[in-house]
């Protein structure tokens, strides 16, 4: 039987080629993702190990505040601790560390380099004078040698930025900070440095100052973020940590080993990468899932076409088991070969991904690709298992072929669909229930995933039942419009409902996800736009050109406030703090001017007269937690530590409306945070002043603050929409793979079908069908199948979109929007894709040699 | 009868081959399927082509019908030299001027009998002549089968539908390739009788390949082929005479 298996593969190599491609692409995506993220992780792991190689102990504040969205924030320690740490027996050297949150270089045109809000980080540190504690190495650049910063207004720049933005040693550069007192300042570049082996750390820009200068620009005089300590020879890290702990003995100070510091940094990267890996792997799994439909289909069709051959084998004495093993053997071989090719292609993909990331500013230092044995195992096992599992059903069917079938004329698809329908309904309903429970009940993403998966399979099983009526209906105008070729296209599209359904199901998956994302994005846009309309009362707003997370010097708002015609320029600041131990997001603004620019819908207390020791909370949280006005909240701030505040007011528009559940006055904020930066500035004009007159003046001011952009209401909405569209574009690009594989599936089915219909096509040609008419017919058949799949997908996509948006109502998705035009475009694109998929099969069908075709057995 | 309308071409022959040769293979494996054949098929005649297996009778039919290409020589349908036509022209000639009846698999399984009959006209975007259609369907006694799919028809019924299709567009010429090869004698007789009537009463022209002497007896004329050459012909054949003649081939 093995020989027959092998012969079968060779004889049908074209048929299996396309099946193979589906597996190859899915596996390549999986292995490419794994190789890429492993490589990135390895690169950073070794970077951190080398960078902190000389650090044996690290002293820092014990006070940490969890962020609701971003990373947690840690408090600072006094500089006076350094001498006490240095005095420890085992310490060879100790040096204070200042991490400047934002030290953004401006390029020669005054534009900010990097994006402190959400893009490439703009880091600033003090230059470490102790060689072994310093992760940076000075290098000579442009023929000039570097030296460390030694005085105020001197800076060392990372080599990456110097190269990318054409700075030379000796140039003067402006750096912008989150500091009201020092919004920006000029520095002379005295040196250029590398970070370990890299030109810069992962696309970040780095500015290095003297310790005193770092504290000045950061607005944290006499404060440190940490103290790095090097041990004397022969003193172990744990020993050193023990000595420092007993020397300091303060509960608010934490001492850790250098090894732990490295581990922490590595874990941080791993966590960030983990999200990214999961994101990519989801799309890889979707691609494989779509591919599995193609595998089922190919094997089913090939087995149907080989019915006589298999029946002959049975008649000659082969057992059903042998037939099944023969088919599964084929699947195993196809799966294995495709998976191996897929892994190879994955390596190329990993290199490509690295290049793409580099192009987006996230440079991954070049190193050899990391191909773990587990990557091979996971990718190949996944590819083989998917192929094998997909072939199980067709193999079972093959084993059931009776020897008598050898005598019958040809394969007729007639087995009753009753049981299949029942199973399909059960799985689909189960999927829908899981999805709804996952979304509305337990907020369990795994349940949602399982539900989506179940719905896809359930609907795919139900497909054959509806393929005939729906296909007929879709093709209804064809006979009139395209004549006999159109009629044949319609009939052919529905003559094998199972085949049509599983071909369409592959496309359904991609279209459903596109539909879901489209509805999701459209609802998000509409919700945000509605929230802006409701909450925004002002005339203009200054925001970051890359998003809401920007940070500007408070000087900007002060200068805007002085523009004639401007009534109010109220800054908005963001902060992270903890309420009852859970990380929360804090908004701060000037309460007295709030009602001119914002409608937070005040409910209780005096929102507009909020005191510095008070906080305002949203009605939703207030009610949920059963708080009372005047009650003290257990709050904790990164720098201050635990510091209770009193509830002074309750307002209606919180996080659900796209804002925050916690609001504080600017005075209160400034008392608790040292990094003072405005994220947005809301502007209201004097009555009777026209926006047109004032806007240019405000724009002139904003121009001097890197990344600032002046918007009116419609501009603000448009900016949000652009950002959503960008993310949408990325997701669509990743879903394209799934759709591409589905198109291969349509092409494969058509190719198999036309081979099956060789005689029929020959006859049609003999009685006068032109080549063009043959092509037209195949093309329209493909279009019907594609549109059928797209419609199935759309129905599911709309259901998913509705469920998801409704479930996220409390997260700010206040409005459901089903964009009809865009969804119609999706169907039209699916039809065009059908044309594309049909191109080769149609050409082949039209080129059949008429005489050979009629005489084919 | 409307025979004058269907034969507008003044040429005496509906189809003819002039020194037609068809060679397969090369060198030692060279086979002359047709060897310098010149033959004419008169309009309004029923001609049978006979010969042993490998005599080239099917090749001759395929070349006459534009389904296959000659190695050398010419083939004419009426006064059109189809051996000089391109693929597109051949398609049009097959569609508009020629009717086909094959031994098996004559019908498109997804179309019903009526649609199969009018298939060539539908492909041309023309409407069938309703009266003519009804006459053919009536004569072939398939009026109650028109909405049936081929899988619901018997072999004989399928061949009758195929004959109806060949006739409905009033072609200059009908080529039949063993049209009764898969039928029992009763069904064969019905089909052959109808083809005979189509020539005598409706003025059609039929060229039929067969190896069955009794089928050939329905024809006006029998052309005998052997080794790619025309070796004999017979007018007013009877089954016995044809059989006797075939025996002389020693097959």
Instruction: Please identify the oligomeric state.
Output: heterodimer
Radius of gyration of chain B: 18 Å
Class by helix and strand content of chain B? alpha/beta
User: Uncertain spans of chain B, ≥5 residues at pLDDT below 50?
Assistant: 1-11
Order of helices and strands of chain B: HEEEHEEHEHHHHEHEHEEH
The termini of chain A sit apart by 25 Å
Helical content class of chain A: 55-70%
Structural class of chain A: alpha+beta
The overall average pLDDT of chain A, rounded, is 87
CA distance, first residue to last residue of chain B: 42 Å
Residues in β-strands, percent of chain A: 15-25%
Q: What fraction of the residues of chain B are assigned to beta strands by DSSP?
A: 25-35%
Short characterization:
The complex is a heterodimer of chains A (857) and B (251). Chain A is α+β, with helices and mostly antiparallel strands. Chain A contains 24 helices and 28 strands.
Structure description:
The complex is a heterodimer of chains A (857) and B (251). Chain A is an alpha+beta fold. Helix content of chain A is 55%, strand content 16%. In chain A, strands 17, 18, 19, 20, 21, 22, 23, 24, 25, 26, 27 and 28 form a 12-stranded mixed sheet that branches. The longest helix of chain A is centred in the N-terminal third of the chain and has 48 residues, at 258-305. The radius of gyration of chain A is 33 Å and the shape is globular. By secondary structure, chain B is an alpha/beta fold. Chain B has helices spanning 3-6, 57-64, 87-97, 113-117, 119-124, 130-139, 155-168, 185-200, 213-216, 239-247; strands at residues 13-24, 31-42, 46-50, 72-77, 80-81, 98-101, 173-177, 206-209, 221-226, 229-235. Chain B is globular. Mean pLDDT of chain B is 88; it is low at 1-11. The chains are: A alpha+beta (857), B alpha/beta (251). Chains A and B meet through helix 13, helix 21 and helix 24 of A and helix 3 and helix 5 of B.
């Amino acid at each position: 039987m093995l020989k027959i298996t092998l012969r079968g593969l060779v004889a049908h190599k074209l048929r299996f080629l396309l099946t193979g491609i589906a597996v190859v692409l899915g596996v390549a995506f999986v292995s490419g993702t794994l190789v890429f993220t492993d490589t990135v992780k390895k690169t950073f792991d070794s970077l951190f190990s080398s960078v902190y190689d000389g650090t044996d102990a690290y002293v820092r504040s014990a006070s940490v505040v969890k962020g609701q969205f971003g990373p947690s924030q840690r408090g600072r320690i006094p500089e006076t601790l350094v001498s006490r740490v240095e005095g420890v027996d085992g310490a060879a050297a100790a040096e204070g560390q200042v991490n400047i949150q934002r030290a953004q270089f401006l390029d020669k045109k005054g534009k900010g380099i990097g994006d402190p809000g959400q893009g490439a980080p703009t880091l600033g540190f003090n230059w470490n004078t102790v060689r072994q504690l310093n992760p940076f190495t000075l290098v000579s650049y442009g023929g000039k040698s570097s030296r460390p910063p030694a005085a105020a207004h001197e800076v060392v720049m990372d080599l990456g930025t110097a190269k990318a933005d054409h700075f030379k040693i000796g140039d003067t550069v402006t750096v912008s900070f989150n500091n009201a007192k020092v919004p920006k300042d000029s520095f002379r570049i005295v040196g250029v440095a590398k970070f370990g082996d890299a030109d810069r750390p992962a696309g970040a820009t780095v500015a290095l100052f003297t310790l005193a200068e770092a504290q000045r620009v950061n607005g944290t005089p006499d404060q440190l973020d940490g103290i790095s300590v090097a041990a004397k020879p022969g003193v172990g890290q744990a020993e050193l940590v023990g000595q420092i702990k007993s020397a300091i003995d303060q509960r608010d100070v934490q001492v850790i080993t250098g090894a732990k510091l490295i581990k922490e940094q590595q874990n941080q990267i791993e966590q960030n990468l983990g999200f990214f890996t999961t994101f990519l792997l989801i799309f890889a799994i979707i691609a494989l899932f779509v591919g599995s439909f193609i595998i089922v289909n190919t094997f089913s069709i090939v087995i149907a076409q080989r019915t006589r051959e298999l029946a002959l084998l049975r008649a000659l004495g082969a057992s059903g088991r042998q037939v099944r093993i023969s088919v599964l053997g084929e699947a195993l071989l196809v799966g294995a070969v495709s998976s191996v090719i897929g892994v190879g292609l994955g390596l190329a993909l990993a290199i490509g991904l690295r290049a793409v990331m580099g192009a987006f500013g996230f440079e991954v230092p070049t190193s050899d690709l990391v191909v773990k044995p587990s990557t091979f195992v996971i990718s190949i096992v996944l590819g083989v298992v998917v192929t094998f599992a997909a072939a199980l059903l067709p193999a079972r069917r093959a084993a059931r072929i009776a020897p008598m079938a050898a005598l019958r004329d040809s394969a007729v698809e007639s087995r009753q669909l009753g049981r299949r329908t029942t199973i399909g309904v059960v799985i689909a309903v189960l999927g829908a229930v899981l999805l709804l429970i996952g979304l509305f009940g337990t907020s369990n993403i795994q349940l949602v995933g399982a539900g989506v998966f179940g719905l896809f399979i359930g609907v795919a099983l139900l497909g054959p039942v509806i393929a005939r009526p729906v296909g007929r209906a879709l093709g209804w105008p064809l006979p009139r419009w395209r004549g006999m070729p159109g009629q044949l296209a319609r009939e052919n599209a529905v003559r094998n409902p199972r085949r049509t359904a599983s071909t369409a199901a592959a496309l359904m998956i991609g279209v459903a996800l596109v539909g879901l994302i489209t509805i999701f994005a459209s609802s998000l846009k509409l919700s945000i736009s509605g929230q802006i309309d409701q909450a925004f009362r002002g005339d203009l707003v200054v925001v970051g050109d890359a998003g809401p997370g920007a940070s500007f010097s408070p000087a900007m708002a002060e200068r805007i406030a002085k523009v004639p015609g401007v009534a109010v320029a109220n800054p908005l600041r963001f902060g992270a703090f903890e309420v009852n131990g859970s990380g929360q997001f804090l908004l701060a603004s000037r309460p007295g001017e709030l009602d001119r620019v914002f409608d937070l819908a005040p409910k209780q207390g005096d929102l507009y007269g909020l005191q510095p020791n008070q906080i305002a909370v949203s009605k939703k949280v207030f009610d949920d937690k059963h708080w009372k006005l005047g009650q003290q909240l257990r709050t904790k701030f990164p720098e201050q530590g635990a510091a209770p505040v009193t509830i002074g007011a309750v307002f209606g528009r919180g996080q659900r409306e796209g804002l925050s559940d916690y609001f504080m006055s600017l005075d209160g904020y400034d008392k608790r945070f040292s990094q003072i930066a405005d994220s947005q500035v809301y502007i209201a004009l004097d009555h009777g002043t026209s926006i047109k007159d004032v806007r240019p003046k405000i724009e002139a001011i904003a121009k001097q603050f890197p990344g600032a952009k002046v918007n009116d209401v419609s501009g603000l909405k448009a900016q949000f929409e652009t950002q959503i569209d960008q993310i949408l574009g990325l997701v669509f690009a990743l879903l394209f793979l799934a759709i591409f594989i589905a198109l291969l599936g349509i092409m494969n089915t058509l190719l198999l079908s036309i081979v099956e219909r060789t005689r029929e096509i020959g006859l049609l040609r003999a009685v006068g069908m032109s080549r063009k008419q043959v092509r037209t017919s195949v093309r329209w058949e493909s279009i019907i199948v594609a549109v059928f799949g797209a419609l199935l997908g759309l129905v599911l996509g709309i259901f998913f979109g509705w469920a998801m948006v409704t479930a996220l109502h409390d997260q700010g998705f206040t409005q459901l929007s089903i964009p009809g035009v865009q969804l119609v475009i999706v169907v039209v694109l699916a039809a065009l894709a059908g044309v594309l998929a049909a191109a080769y099969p149609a050409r082949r069908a039209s080129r059949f040699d008429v005489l050979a075709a009629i005489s084919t057995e | 009868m409307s025979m004058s309308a269907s034969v507008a071409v003044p040429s005496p022959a509906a189809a003819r081959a002039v020194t037609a040769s068809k060679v397969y293979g090369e060198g030692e494996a060279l086979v002359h399927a047709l060897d310098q054949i010149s033959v004419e098929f008169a309009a309004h005649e029923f001609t049978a082509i006979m010969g042993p297996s490998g005599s080239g009778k099917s090749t001759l039919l395929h070349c006459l019908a534009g389904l296959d290409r000659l190695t050398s020589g010419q083939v004419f349908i009426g006064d059109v030299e189809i051996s000089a036509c391109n693929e597109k022209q051949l398609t049009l000639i097959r569609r508009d001027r020629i009717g086909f009846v094959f031994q098996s698999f004559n019908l498109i399984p997804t179309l019903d009998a009526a649609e199969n009959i009018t298939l060539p006209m539908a492909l041309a975007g023309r409407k069938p002549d309703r009266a003519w259609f009804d006459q053919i369907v009536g004569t072939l006694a398939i009026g109650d089968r028109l909405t049936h799919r081929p899988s619901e028809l018997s072999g004989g019924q399928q061949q009758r539908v195929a004959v109806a299709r060949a006739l409905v567009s009033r072609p200059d010429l009908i080529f039949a390739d063993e049209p009764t090869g898969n039928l029992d004698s009763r069904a064969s007789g019905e089909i052959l009788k109808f083809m005979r009537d189509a020539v005598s009463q409706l003025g059609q022209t039929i060229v039929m390949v067969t190896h069955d002497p009794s089928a050939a007896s329905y024809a006006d004329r029998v052309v005998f082929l052997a080794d790619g050459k025309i070796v004999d012909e017979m007018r007013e054949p009877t089954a016995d005479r044809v059989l006797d003649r075939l025996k002389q081939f020693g097959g």
